[in-house]
Amino acid sequence: MSAIQPNVQQPQPVSEEMELVRRAKRGDDSAFEELVRRYDRNVFRIAQHITQNREDAEDVVQDAFLKAYGNLSQFQEQSKFYTWLVRIAVNEALMRLRRRRPERMVSLDEEVKTEDDSLPREVADWSPNPEQMYNQSELRDILTRTIQGLPPGFRTVFVLRDVEGLSTEETAQALELSIPAVKSRLLRARLQLRERLSRFFQKRANGNGEKSSGDGDQ
Amino acid sequence: MKCTEFLDELTNYLDGVIDAKTKAELEDHLAWCHNCYVVCDTTRKTIEIYRNQELYELPNDLRGRLQTAIMSKCSAQKKSGPQKV
Asked: Which CATH number is A14-100 given?
């Protein structure tokens, strides 16, 4: 098996992006607007994954860009603008999640249990084309509910790394985590999602992915 | 390679950041351990499915409203001077 590579659109080459940032720093709002257009979809997706709430996600998009605008002079240009922006957006999103769920501590630093709860228990093989077992809205519903069940710390790492295609190093920078911490959370997030999805995607009794129509083999 | 060692290397393997020797050991393990083969294959599918399905697309009308709001707030912030954030 070969390695899978993100097929999501990666942020533009750094030099071009940095040129926009420099123009924005000099007060050129059209350059900042271009940065907004480049990344608003990504920020919205990340925010909605973390907050699980559409209104909060809209607020996060606005506030993250506004904070970036207000603090642009402090951006050191040692990382990509996008990574810096994601860091601001993740913090904004977590703040809203905490506000909405004050009864639960929400932190990216929450202790990762080291017991064997990520060791796969369910190892039934999947149908060859799991995406075709359900219609589009059923599939989206399954995927949304499944990822929402992950703890925020795992969910965020999975979204940045596997959905948005940030590198391990960029994810670590954006979340202020160490690289081993990102890797460990990513593994656990992937394994937990896999296990939860198995319930929906495993091969059915007749082996071709179709629902069995009866309960007897006449 | 044991199953637990395979799990330790799974993320590096799927991300293609693994040295040739470990990769060979891992693939040797996958050749005879059906459970680990299934875990590896279905974990890969899990990632691909989430990548293929954009779950939270930003609708165009909302996107337009957000962009307008952001730029008008930025402009107001500029006029009122630096803001403590």
From this structure: 1.10.1740.10
